[in-house]
Amino acid sequence: MIVVIKPHTPPDLIAEVIAEVEKLGYTAHTISGALQTVVAAIGDETTHTTLESLNALPQVERVMPVQKRYKLVSRESHPEPTVIDVDGVPVGGSAFAVIAGPCSVESEEQLLTTAHAVKAAGATLLRGGAYKPRTSPYEFQGLGQEGLRLLRLARQETGLKIVTELLSEYDADLVAGTADVLQIGARNSQNFRLLIAAAKTGKPILLKRGLSQRIEEWLLSAEYILSAGNPNVMLCERGIRTFETYTRNTLDLAAVAVAKRESHLPVIVDPSQGCGRADLVPSLCAGAVALGADGLIIEVHPNPAEALSDGQQQVDFKSFGRLMDSLNPFLKVMGRTGKA
Ligand code: PEP
Ligand code: MN
Q1: What pLDDT is stored for residue 339 in this prediction?
Q2: Does the pTM of the predicted model rise above 0.90?
Q3: Which residue minimizes the CA distance to atom 6 of ligand 1?
Q4: What is the CATH number of domain 84-334?
């Protein structure tokens, strides 16, 4: 950490800061400029007590951490990209993953026809919520255990791996009994006990970025999962809340580039929640591939106009097929494999 002392601070008050730094186990190196003094506190910030409390001293201008707060998630700790093995399907590295399927599991016919359609178009993982986080308690909440049964059936019929949301820590074992990947939704991205419970199931986790979550906070949420002993986390950018109302959320592609730079974890883009409009989904997918994302999670429905949730942003089978074909040149340029 770097402790910046206010200009014109007398030596005895600078010595007081140095004493505090050393009391907390750091070695203090003082750099004196013409006007201002800076104290570099040398020591492992992840094991030492933070010096941020020194901000309370009147002679301290500010305290700046040097090391990353996310240790296991950072690229420094793990220079090679992490490749997650989802029961035989790689996510990360040169593999490009396409997760597709309905927002919610609604019926056997809806799920199975969608599973076959997305598989035929080249997806390798099937999404579908059985437990849905809805803004209003009067909206469709998902089929619950029946939804999980249908997801198992779809996997049995198509071989697609299942991505489904874990809404509550009470359901961790139940949902992990079906899921190949547990999705943690945007509204739960800082529900730390849920993150730990999800981690402990041992299943790979797709961690959505929160609606108002800063990139550092998102990476720290991932750190909760890694530090609980589960290294298999996919970061998922799904749009954030901004002043813009033309789109449902603002898909933050810059955050994808930052996450790729800062972390070794695979980064997945969700253009469906990201913009909330089916017509914009193909362009955002192309942008995500070109930017170096490791995969996409796309909402697909046999008849979006009749969907029980998020109808406005789901693409139909024909559009999904066209979209997948349109990604080929981008995947080739980026040296990605994984799509049929
Ligand atoms: C979803 O994937 O359908 C969903 C609810 O996502 P999010 O948590 O990103 O809103
Ligand atoms: Mn949805």
Answers
A1: 57
A2: yes
A3: 185
A4: 3.20.20.70
Q: Where are the domains of the chain?
A: 2-64, 84-334
Q: Which of 134, 138, 112 is nearest to 186 (CA)?
A: 134
Q: What is the spatial distance between Cα 311 and Cα 309, in angstroms, rounded to a whole number?
A: 6
84-334 has the same fold as 2-64: no
Check if 208 has its Cβ closer than 6 Å to any atom of ligand 1: yes
Q: Is 238 in the pocket of ligand 1 (CB under 6 A)?
A: yes
Q: Report the residue among 126, 249, 250, 270 best suited for mutation to probe ligand 1: largest number of ligand atoms under 8 A from its CB.
A: 270
Question: How confident is the model over 151-195, as pLDDT tens digits?
Answer: 999 999 999 999 999 999 999 999 999 999 999 999 999 999 999
pLDDT category at 338 given cuts 50, 70, 90 is low
CATH topology assigned to domain 2-64 = Alpha-Beta Plaits (3.30.70)
Cα separation of the two ends of the chain: 49
In angstroms, what is the span from residue 186 Cα to ligand 1's centroid? 6
Say what the pLDDT of residue 340 is.
44
Residue type, 290: A
User: How far apart are the C-alpha atoms of 59 and 38, rounded to whole Å?
Assistant: 11
